[in-house]
Amino acid sequence: MRKIFFAILIASGLFACQQNPANKKDSQNPNEHLVMATLWYQRASECRALYYQAFNAAKLSLDKQLAIPSDKSKPKAVVVDIDETVLDNSPFETNSIRTGKSYSSAAWKEWTDMAKAQATPGALEFLKYAESKGVETFYISNRDTTATKKTLQNLKELGFPFADEAHILLKTNTSVKTVRRNKVSETHDILILAGDNIGDFDEILEDRSENYGFGKVDSMKDLFGGKFIVLPNPMYGSWERQILKSDKKLNADEKEKLRVKRLVGYEEI
After folding, report:
1. Are the C-beta atoms of 229 and 192 separated by less than 8 Å?
2. Residues 29-85 pLDDT 10s
3. Which long-range contacts link 164-171 to residues 24+ away (Cβ below 8 Å)?
4. Mean pLDDT across the chain, nearest whole number?
5. 99: closest CA among 113, 83, 111, 116?
6. 3-class DSSP state for residue 25?
7. Contact 176/140 with Cβ under 8 angstroms?
8. 112-151 pLDDT, tens digit each
């Protein structure tokens, strides 16, 4: 009788595991995929080196362009994105991983309201150098305009130049930055654009529907490292939209399957 009882218990346990397995992906942290990307961003010396490399290239490009005779009727400017370009928001990603909560505007506002983001390596030094050369900085970011006050507070406390309302253009009705870049171009000669997202440079690069946008980047390859300065960000970006493109809303498991499917393996070479 005891043997039959234990057999029933074991069978019941196996049935329960099959119905609700501990490793079922839907019950896992939906932000698990961010762990390695965020660790690399925060702990890899290579990431830090890439920031220094990018801003060193920006300095060389700035000097080169300032040495070329140009229209002196317009003051010179550099345009920079904010998040993961001059401010490090990786603690927000860490919080998303630890809480298991997906991105939300409320969670993002909670973070930006803290005004605690640190400067990315080399960013402050480069923009201060540009200022010493008489070059203004404009911050064009897709943070919502409601974040203006706290964003400026964060930038000011870190010592960033031109951290004022005249030099910051946040998102109003579109994340495409063309209109805002054009607004700066009306009054200033833009020498450098710096950002971690390809759309920070030219609207034509926003469309990644054909071969993930590689062809468009290739057509502009001579601009990168010169007028266009790209900063590393493996944690998030508009590049994800093409990876996770689907006709329906995806759950965490489906997103993970798509990520794996998009990888290039032996059979695709």
Report:
1. yes
2. 899 999 999 999 999 999 999 999 999 999 999 999 999 987 778 999 999 999 999
3. 167/136, 167/137, 167/138, 167/139, 168/138, 168/139, 168/141, 169/138, 169/139, 169/140, 169/141, 170/141, 170/142, 170/143, 170/144, 170/145, 171/141, 171/142, 171/143, 171/144, 171/145
4. 91
5. 111
6. helix
7. no
8. 999 999 999 999 999 999 999 999 999 999 999 999 999 9
